[in-house]
Amino acid sequence: MFTDFLKTNGPELLIKAWEHLYISLIAVLLGILVAVPLGILLTRMKRSAPVLIGAVNILQTLPSLAILAFFIPFLGVGKVPAIIALFFYSVLPILRNTYIGIKGINENLLEAGRGIGMTSWERIRFVEFPLALPVIMAGIRTATVYLIGWATLASFIGGGGLGDYIFTGLNLYQEEYIIAGAVPAIIMAIFVDFFLARVEGKVVPRGLKGTKQAV
């Protein structure tokens, strides 16, 4: 019975859930730190942008297990290679939405910024980034939900998390282990998406709400 499983493994389940959330959020944070500045930079590189975004698109199509296995010879096993692999998967939604969000800004608004003497950095900070924020936040939400799902594969290289239960259940043909890994991961993804939606509601200016673009 699953209730008996929870009584026996409840504390361990909480630890696995925390590991799962930890590696997912660290990977997303790294993705934000890299993809947002890179997306802004690509809006200034008209010739290179399609090539670089295309390269990231190709990376996104590689199987998750292949990416995880690729880092084993270089980084061994554990949380670090799992986080790095998940980081690569977080880059595309955030990078693409940052690029699209800024490129979609009305040119008249940018000209107005230039007209009042704003530097390039000031236009990014006070005009482009705030106007693109709804689209960027949509990319962050998408990446976070994806990574919480993909993080179940971190168990394949010893990264821990809820995937440990799923792989154990598959190996032992024990459905309670599979449920213990899959259901909390689904609930976590829903909760985190709801939380980020609330954060978006706080940080996005009221007049810009409803302008985000799905990825």
UniProtKB/TrEMBL annotation:
UniProt keyword Transcription regulation present: no
Ranges of residues in domain ABC transmembrane type-1: 17-196
Topology with respect to the bilayer: Multi-pass membrane protein
Main location: membrane
Biological process annotations from GO: amino acid transport; glycine betaine transport; transmembrane transport
Listed transmembrane segments: 20-42, 49-72, 78-95, 131-157, 177-196
A cellular-component GO term for this protein: plasma membrane
Record keywords: Amino-acid transport, Membrane, Transmembrane, Transmembrane helix, Transport
Localization terms from the record: Cell membrane
PANTHER family: CHOLINE TRANSPORT SYSTEM PERMEASE PROTEIN OPUBB (PTHR30177:SF28), GLYCINE BETAINE/L-PROLINE TRANSPORT SYSTEM PERMEASE PROTEIN PROW (PTHR30177)
Record-stated family: Belongs to the binding-protein-dependent transport system permease family. CysTW subfamily.
The name this protein goes by in its record: ABC transporter permease subunit
Species of the source: Bacillus aerolatus
